[in-house]
Amino acid sequence: MWLPTKLEKQLAFAATAGTPLTFSSYFKMDADHDGEAVDFVANGRVVWAPARVDYRAMLVHDHIGALTAMYDRNVLGTRLMPDMPKRQDYALWLSIMRDGVDARAVREPLAVYRAQRAGSLSSNKLGLVPFNWALYREHEHLSVPRSARALAGAVWHSLRKSRI
């Protein structure tokens, strides 16, 4: 869920950031939270976005929360998420960044993410391993050793992030 000023603040940031790919920090709300997202913000846990991310950093950890990302179509053209079973957003960010674009973040949380419920498709972090492997090998065309290093980093960061 976007906070009321997200679009205004992120568009202003994008106009001065020097990159066509921007994102922001966001609040992480428990799946069973019953209140309104805006009421939750004062008590929420924040997933802090790094100020800047390049392709190399993205290979080992998807730093961009999909609900916060924006890209400038005037600069990049229309870039679609690839037809993959999972990790489509991650593949899109990698394809943009592989072309030499670094992403920059609004450090202020501008959205609220409702965490996955137990048993949901995206709650199984280890279940994403084969999808990440396919992304590295088939979409990014990385060698086996480089894919293995990226996958090890992705698993580590995913486990760490899931405890936030």
From TrEMBL:
This is Glycosyl transferase. It comes from Streptomyces blastmyceticus.
